[in-house]
């Protein structure tokens, strides 16, 4: 089917770029955390990257519904923290950006009269808000117990062969 405006496909592709960018960042960070021995936190980042992959899947399907071309070539700057604490800070920033971008996209779709695509963005906003909340909780825990104590809880000594 045709979208109400080609702008809708542009908004979906912009969201796809954001998702592909964070998938890459979280996936690399997950493996870095595993490599440092922080297997529990690594698993959380891995699961986040899978969540974002599902978002990318939703966006690709919607672009194809409109006979558009999902752009899988384009990536934003992949930010990778140098340590676990920085990974959490950067993650929270990128989730805040996602919430802002998807809220704006939902509003623009409503203004164009495409309430279906707006609903897709709104659902995605709720997912990203959950991610913001998770990052906030981790950073709060670090504030409360200190980075060393927090990281001691992220070790995963039970998986020697990964
Ligand atoms: Fe996402
Ligand atoms: Fe997210």
From TrEMBL:
Pfam families: Ferritin. GO terms for molecular function: ferric iron binding; ferroxidase activity; heme binding. It catalyses: 4 Fe(2+) + O2 + 4 H(+) = 4 Fe(3+) + 2 H2O; Fe(2+)(in) = Fe(2+)(out). Fe cation 1 binds at residues 19, 52, 128. Its EC number is 1.16.3.1. Its cofactor is heme b. Residues 2-146 form the Ferritin-like diiron domain. NCBIfam families: bfr (TIGR00754). Belongs to the bacterioferritin family. This is Bacterioferritin. It comes from Kribbella shirazensis. The lineage of its organism: Bacteria, Bacillati, Actinomycetota, Actinomycetes, Propionibacteriales.
């Amino acid at each position: 089917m045709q979208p109400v405006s080609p702008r809708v496909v542009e908004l979906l592709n912009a969201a796809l770029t954001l998702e592909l960018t964070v998938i890459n960042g979280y996936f690399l960070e997950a493996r870095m955390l595993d490599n440092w021995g922080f297997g529990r936190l690594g698993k959380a980042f891995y699961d986040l990257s899978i969540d974002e992959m599902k978002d990318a899947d939703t966006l690709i399907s919607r672009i194809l519904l409109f006979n558009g071309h999902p752009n899988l070539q384009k990536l934003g700057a992949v930010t990778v923290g140098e340590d676990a604490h920085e990974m959490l800070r950067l993650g929270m920033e990128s989730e805040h950006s996602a919430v802002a971008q998807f809220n704006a996209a939902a509003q623009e779709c409503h203004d164009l009269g495409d309430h279906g695509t707006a609903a897709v963005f709104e659902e995605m906003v709720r997912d990203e808000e959950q991610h913001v909340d998770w990052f906030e909780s981790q950073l709060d825990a670090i504030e409360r117990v200190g980075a060393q104590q927090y990281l001691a809880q992220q070790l995963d000594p039970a998986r020697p062969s990964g």
